[in-house]
Design a protein that fits this description.
heterodimer, A: 212 residues, mainly alpha, B: 478 residues
Chain lengths: 212, 478
Amino acid sequence: MAQLEAVVLILVIVANFVTLGTGRLTTCIRAVALQGFLLGLLPVVLHAGWSLHQIGLAAGTIAVKAVLLPRFLLWAIRETAIRREVEPRVGYVASLLLGAAGLAIAFAVAGRLPLPEQAAALLVPVALATVIMGLVVLTTRRKAVNQVVGYLMLENGIYLFGLTQTERVPFLVEVGVLLDIFVAVFIMGIVVFHINREFDSIDSARLAELAE
Amino acid sequence: MTLLALILVPALAAAGAYAHREAAYRTGWLVGVAALHLALVVAVWLAPPAAVLGGWLAVDALGLVVLALVSLLFFVVALYTVGYLRREDPRGGRAFVSCLLAFLASASLVALSHHFALLWVGMESTTLAVAPLIFHRHDRRSLEAVWKYLVLSSVAIALALLGTFFLATAQSLVAGAGRPLVLEDLVAAAPRLHVAWLRGAFIFLLVGFGTKMGLVPLHTWKPDTYGEAPSLVGGLMAGALASCAFLGLARITQVVLAAGLAAFVRPLLIGFGLLSLAAAAAFMILQSDVKRLLAYSSIEHTGLLVLGLGLGGVGPYGTVLHVINSGLAKVLMFLAVGNVVLATGTSAAAGNRGILRTLPVSGALLLIGLFAVTGSPPFGPFVSEFTILRAALAEGHPWVAAGMVALLAIVFVGMAAMILEMLHGERGSAGAHAPESGWLVVGPAALAAAILTLGLYIPAPLQDALVRAAAALGGRAP
């Protein structure tokens, strides 16, 4: 199972880099949906058992992170006719480099920390790297949809980390699903109020209204 | 059972309030539930019930102080809401009352949680419950404010969850460390917890809860949000929500101090405290809007809270007392300013002049609030700020004490300059004379009385709770 797990985790990282390197919103959403699907597989792959809890967790994760939220996001970009990221604060090549640096930092940090025994040596660094890359997307992109994608990556990273504790701490990972409420609220906000950039393009004439 | 009731009663009442169409009925319902909640809190204070749900929900002195403060402030705000919804009520106030009650339920959950994941759930729910309240006016400015608030809070709350996972990891690496993430067991096993993971947990929880408190540089949402939210919501956020976020930070500080990491934690807390104080003082001078001014005042007070927590000695005692005092004073200010805004339709300082003549009662309350919130004697905040100052001197931080005094002086000048001009000054054209409804002044008047009382003497049961709470945070009684 260890090899299968490594493959899944490497694909998670690949999905991160895809989002970092493109301005096509549909690609970003598909990548993060794929990531959600992989996350759903992990509880079963990691613990090799087929307990009801693990299957429930896997099914719930896939339903929310791989199906519901991505479909909701795709619907949002259809409704608001947003296709591409325009002028991200940091270019795609630079974001990829930032992501690579984040990956290196994550492995360096995780290598120096003792890991919970049941956690695979790969799981913790991949989780931390996903958190960092999510934060990169969240802060460097201007389109609200893309920021939601970044937020989903951040959440996925946290979920991955939480998987090291599923056996020991009941409900801990499940609690993370509450974060998805924010995602839903954001998507609703984007659709209902056509929020294109973070908050400044609601009406560009009023850009500086709440500025310091 | 009482502990569960404190959370479930407002939660169910939130649903009940939504079901009713009659506006008058709904506000009556709100005041009734707030009064019931306050009565339950008094009962808990008199006879603390045993922990329930396997130790996940429990009362201790620190949680009880925050719970009582939240409940009292909520009751005051509920009375104010009756008057407020009669004056400004764009959509029947149905969602408004429900969200207020949902906030009360989640804030009670935060105050009673002795389990870090449950505490986190409470913090997340407070964030969500408040969002529709900020957006009450449904205009572009409030949309921008609520969006900013949600984006920052959601990232903060996510990082706080990661911190909680780190904490669980720190605990899982040692055998026999007790029930996972339960506060008492964590504190008991603290010296054996894994240090690196524990430090990581503290950093992430500091960032997460610090953003919710509005510590500089994580405060950027606060002026916009407080500036745009209805005044009573701003007051509830500054008084109750910030106290809940502080409680979250205090909980992890309890664990980290028990683990013997004081040398790591204290400089961080002192640094964030002074930075917040300095930034608040600097930006206050530049403000032209009174609600934004209050937002910076709130940032100043959160700075004082973490400063006192970081100083040790009598600092934690001063901090816990300041949670109460600053909470009361901030809500008093927001409600008094709210009356001004209701009368003149603007929170820009330039549009409000001669308030003492046009709105004598609210003007007088605003004047009292000004002296209270800036920590002038004989009001409560003076006592708590002075205790924090004493801690700085006694624990060997004379420069911190000097900086604190200088910054508090700037804050006083900045606030007094704007508010005194609003109170006196020539009567502006916008200053229409409006009769002051009893609902809108009774709450703030009660708060003013409470702040004055706490400045003169501290009742014995409160003193007892303060001492125990300070001891839990590594401090001692003055």
